[in-house]
Structures are given as C-alpha cells and as structure tokens.
Amino acid sequence: MVRKIGILTSGGDAPGMNAAIRAVTRIALNNGVDVVGIRNGYKGLYEDNMFDMDKRSVSNILSRGGTTLGSARLPEFKEDNIQEVCIDNLKKHDVDALVVVGGDGSYRGALALTQKGVNCVGLPGTIDNDISGTDYTIGFNTALNTCVENVDKLRDTSSSHHRCSVVEVMGNHCGDLALYTALSCGAEMVITPETGYDEMEVMEQLRYLGEAVQKDHAIIIVSEKICDCEALATKISQNTNFSGRATVLGHIQRGGSPSPFDRNLASRMGEKAVDLLMEGIGGHCVGMIDNEITSLPIEEALNKPKKSRKHLYRLFDRLI
Ligand code: ADP
Ligand code: F6P
Question: For residue 4, which of 278, 225, 239, 252 has the smallest C-alpha distance?
Fold first, then answer.
C-alpha cells in the first residue's frame, strides 16, 4: 500500500506543471496519502532537497506559469550509482512512489527508478508535444497560444512593410508547435523535421507567391534546430522581392499563465497518476487520447512512433 508519494518536475518547464502538482497533492492528501515535494527535478532528489506538502502548499498556483517546485537537468542521473543515492534519499523520507512531470528524458529516469523498485508514474509536461501515447502534452496549448499571439503581431508589421517574416518556434525535434502555429496563423510556409528544408524550394515558392500570386507579405514558421533563420532571412532579401526579417520566439514560449485547456488537462492527468500509484502500478505514463485519460507503459510510449500529421500538412497546403 502506498503511504507517501513524492512529486517532481523535470526537464524544460511547461505551463500547467503547477496544475499537475496541485492535483497530485490535493488528491493524494484527500485519499490519506502523504505528499513530499522534490525541488529541481532529479537534481533535488540527488541532493535530498525535499519537503512535506499540505493542501496550503499548492494554494494559488493553478494559474501560475513555470513550476513552483523548480526544474533542472541532471545528465548524471543516467548513472546507476546516482540513481542509488536518489533511492536512498527517498527511503530516508519514507517515500514509496513518485510522480514525475516532464518530457521523454524525464520518463527514462522514471523508468529506471521503477526498475530499481520505486514505482513511478510519468505525466507529459513539455511544450514540445513530442510524446507518444497522448494527443497533447501539458503546456503545448499555452505555448501555441503564445506563438499565435506573437505571429499575429508579426503579420501586422510584415504586411505594412511588404516583408517576409521568418519565425523560429521551439519543439525540439517535433514539428507540432510549428505546424499548429502555421495553421492557426495562416502562414505561407512551414518548415519542420517532417517537411524537411530545401533553401532553393523556399526561394522558388516565395518568388511564386510574390510574383504570380501577388502576395505583399509572407510568414514562414520554422521549427528550431533546422536552419539559421537570420541567414535564411538575408537570402530571402537577396533572392526574392520580399525583404526578409527573422524572429526567434525563444523562451517566451515556455512562460505565461497556463490556458484553461492545460490547467484541466494537468488536473485530470494528476488525478490519474495518483489513482495508478494507489493501485500499485508503476512504470506507466498518463496520456489523453480522444479526450479520455489513459495510461500506458513508459517503454511503450518511448518506443511508439508519434501519430502521423500528414492530414494536417495536407490541409496546410490546401489553404495556401
Ligand atoms: P525532458 O524530460 O523535457 O525530455 P531532458 O531530456 O533534459 O528533458 O531530461 C530531463 C532529465 O531526465 C535529465 O536531465 C536527466 O536527469 C533525466 N534523464 C534523461 N535521460 C535519461 C536516461 N536515459 N536515463 C535516466 N535519466 C534520464
Ligand atoms: O523541451 C522543451 C524545450 O523548450 C525545447 O523546445 C527546447 O529545444 C529546449 O527545451 C530548450 O532548452 P533550454 O531551456 O535548456 O534552453
């Protein structure tokens, strides 16, 4: 029987992580299960940086961005001896199960701890939407709203000056944030790991849009880690009749008050995490498929390919 649950947030922060912390804490306490908050992800677990939580510990955090527990990256956590220290620290505080809110790297850590005897459940907390086994990750919707708000502003100035704005968005190696932003903003082009990048093709398409279609401005949404947006903007100025400007949205995408969607998603997922641990289930992660909260083994989520977005790319092409 589980008596005390630990909770940590790990990897890049995401809006909605606080809603998950609140749900796990309140629901566990309401079931007579104690809760320990662990600061700064696996780093805090290693440094024994943890504290007992009560219902008041999570007051007024539902609407706050970031994570009140703090987050960090600890690459050494892959090592057995580091994991053993963490397990000893958990034992010291009588913590017998753990909720890990983070991305796929954090899931790998949760799996390793489960295999060493501490039941862990993962919640998908990342703006990247790059985790299989869930339609949406916690934070993606808020980040998308931030991207859309900013790209709409860029369109205003781009159209006034007959420019082409090249906008880089995050997503790590997943194109979802770029694709959904491009669709929501009516962008002229989207470049993601799924579309690939061909500079000549971009120039050709822009010349077509500028000359044949007579567009007076254009927006290109680019996933990070694909090309240098400044260099692309310069090439656009040199090779098309648009003047190119680059904007990297950067970490602004990670902040801000979580959207109602993310607050509710995180609360529902938090509830499921506590239920799983109370049933004695570990090594699973929580997802939402077709609006139903589900769970699956972490290993499966890590190995399963993400759902194809072909239909959305096709829609994008048909809207140009
Ligand atoms: P995210 O969880 O957002 O994908 P990272 O990939 O940076 O972010 O992972 C967060 C943390 O998870 C890492 O700093 C490390 O502590 C832990 N982690 C990542 N990969 C592994 C792994 N293979 N085994 C154990 N722990 C890992
Ligand atoms: O995983 C979330 C994320 O924001 C990615 O989109 C991005 O590639 C990375 O984290 C940035 O990491 P850092 O905050 O360490 O710069």
Answer: 278
Fold of 4-139+258-303: Rossmann fold (3.40.50)
Specify whether 198 is catalytic. no
Best mutation site among 170, 176, 222 for ligand 2 pocket (most ligand atoms within 8 Å of CB): 170
Assigned architecture for domain 140-254: 3-Layer(aba) Sandwich (3.40)
Ligand 2 pocket, mutate which of 43, 104, 128 (most atoms under 8 A from CB) = 128
pLDDT score at 11: 96
- The set of protein residues with a Cβ atom below 6 angstroms from ligand 2 is 11-12, 103, 126-128, 170-172, 224, 254
CA 28 – ligand 2 centroid, Å = 30
pLDDT (mean) for 301-319: 96
Which residues have CB under 8 Å from 120's CB, separation 6+? 97, 98, 99, 100, 110, 111, 113, 114, 282, 283
Per-residue pLDDT, 144: 99
pLDDT at 258: 98
* Distance separating alpha carbons of residues 42 and 105, to the nearest angstrom: 11
